[in-house]
Amino acid sequence: MSYKERADGRKFEDCRPMEAKVGVIKRADGSAYFKFGNTWAYAAVYGPRTLFPRFMQNPTKGILRCHYNMMPFSSVGERVRPGGSRRSKEISMVTAKSLLPVLDLSAYPNSVVDVFIELPSTEAGSRCAGINAAALALADAGLKVKDIVAAVSVGRVDDQLVVDLDYTEESYPEGHVADIPIAMVPSTGKITLLQMDGIIPKDDLVKVVELGKKACMEISKLQKDALRAKYAGSEKK
Fold first, then answer.
1. Which sequence spans correspond to the domains of the chain?
2. Dist CA 176 CA 70 (whole Å)
3. What CA–CA distance (Å, rounded) separates 114 from 30?
4. How far apart are CA 210 and CA 132, in angstroms?
5. CB 115 within 8 A of CB 138
6. Which of 93, 112, 206, 218 is deepest in the core (most CB within 10 A)?
7. Cis peptide before 48 (omega within 30 of 0)
8. Predicted pLDDT at 232
């Protein structure tokens, strides 16, 4: 059986409704919110600040730490167990690695920048929503960034290539599913994250990554519009 129609009526190359906003957490040095459909991610940046214990310090540059957390009531599937998990540690690590290529920490030796990502609602695509929120929050904090990383999940559901898989597609019971989160630097097209859960032919992988790059450009525009909206509002006050 072929996959002919998405449950929410989207075209196969379309993302779910998206929303982005910066400056949403007052006491953070930078903060942002990003939404894919029913997946919401909040990110708060604290730092640069002196890193302790001292043996972890790097005298040539600061370090970036990301902390990803799905709230217990957030998932449409089983309830998420509170506290850290192997999955949350893995996503925290890949989030940091996806953001580091655009972040210049050379001006902050012996320091740390902490990014806390909280997800109160998740319905697939949570790591990509978190990366988008974190990238915006770093820019909102005034850190030196070359660009704002954009991320989206792409993949193959049965025989159809799709962008921004939702929960019904990730758990599609009638055929094979490949879920591929990617992150990209929009100004260069450089991919900073590429993971895959499932199996997909090589030719389809190349095609679906190109679809993901196009979606990332759309996400990038939304991110930059959110930053402009904040500072345009500041100028009017």
1. 18-236
2. 26
3. 11
4. 19
5. yes
6. 112
7. yes
8. 80
Q: HEC string of 144-161?
A: CECCCCEEEEEEEECCEE
Q: Which amino acid is at 119?
A: L
Q: What is the dihedral of CA 150, 156, 157, 162, to 10 degrees?
A: 40
Q: What is the pLDDT of residue 164?
A: 97
Instruction: Provide mean pLDDT across the span 156-160.
Output: 92
In the three-class reduction of DSSP (H, G, I as helix; E, B as strand; rest coil), residue 4 is classed as coil
Backbone angles phi, psi at 27, to 5 degrees: -90, 0
Of 63, 204, 36, which is closest to residue 128 (Cα–Cα)? 36
- Which amino acid makes up residue 231? Y
Residue 68: which residues within 8 A CB-CB, separation 6 or more? Answer: 88, 91, 92, 95, 117, 119, 127, 130
Cα(156)–Cα(198) distance, integer angstroms: 9
Q: Beta partners for 20?
A: 34
Task: Give the span between the Cα atoms of 12 and 214, in whole angstroms.
Answer: 13
Percent residues over pLDDT 70 in the chain: 92
CA–CA distance, 82 with 84 (Å, rounded to integer): 7
Alpha-carbon distances of 100 from 56, 80, 163, rounded to whole Å: 18, 28, 25
The predicted model scores a pTM of: 0.92
Q: CATH classification of 18-236, choosing from 3.30.230.70, 3.65.10.10, 3.20.20.100, 3.20.20.70?
A: 3.30.230.70
What secondary structure letter does DSSP report for 174? S
Q: 2 is written with which tokens?
A: 């072929």
Per-residue model confidence (pLDDT) at position 146: 94
